[in-house]
Amino acid sequence: MDMTEKTLASREVYRGRIIRVREDTVLLPNGKEGRREVVEHPGGVGILALDGDDVLLVRQYRYAFSRVLTEIPAGKREPGEEPSVTARRELKEEIGAEAEKWTELGALIASPGCYGETLYLYLAQELTFGATHPDEDEFLDVLRMPFDQAVEQCMRGELTDAKTVAALLKAKILLKR
Predict the structure, then answer these.
(1) Which of 41, 49, 61, 102 is the most core-located residue (most Cβ within 10 A)?
(2) What are φ and ψ of residue 18, in 5° steps?
(3) pLDDT for res 138
């Protein structure tokens, strides 16, 4: 069965600084019409920064969830920017580090039902540290913890951010090889 849905009409509902929301009318595989709400996002990166046996995480307030979350350093891609360039910039901005060794951990589609963002994950190793340069509206605390402790917190459900969970588990398997 061909499961492709064909766009019949598209209407912009909202255009903001980072996202665009649209409502589409689609032709479903069974010949009927349906509606799809889509949030367009330029995509981003997440970086699992390992310094020896420690992982560097950031804690920041996430307004949508009204609480502080612990996450890997991450950021939004600029239009046309390669994910690896974004990763290097965000690592420097958020934790003040540069990495000699980079490993791609693949891409993550966190919420494909309505959110059009792809996150590219990286493992950064052999770090050197300098000053952080967070964005003007970004307030972060850098947290260092043993890598295995972060994986355990992930497995206990204490770390819940999808990109962080995925990067930790992917790196754990990769590093065991």
Answers:
(1) 49
(2) -115, -40
(3) 82
Rounded to 10 degrees, the C-alpha dihedral 145/91/140/43 comes to: -110
d(CA 104, CA 121): 6
Contact 84, 122 (CB under 8 A): yes
CATH 3.90.79.10 assigned to domain 44-176? The reply is yes
Which residue type, as a one-letter code, is found at position 38? V
> Which residue reads 């390992």 in tokens?
50
Which among 40, 81, 136, 138 is annotated as catalytic? 136
- What's residue 1's pLDDT? 85
- Give the global pTM: 0.92
Structure tokens that stand for 74 in this block: 């991450």
Is a pLDDT exceeding 80 seen at residue 177? no
* Local structure of residue 158 (DSSP, 8 states): S
Residue 136 known to be catalytic: yes
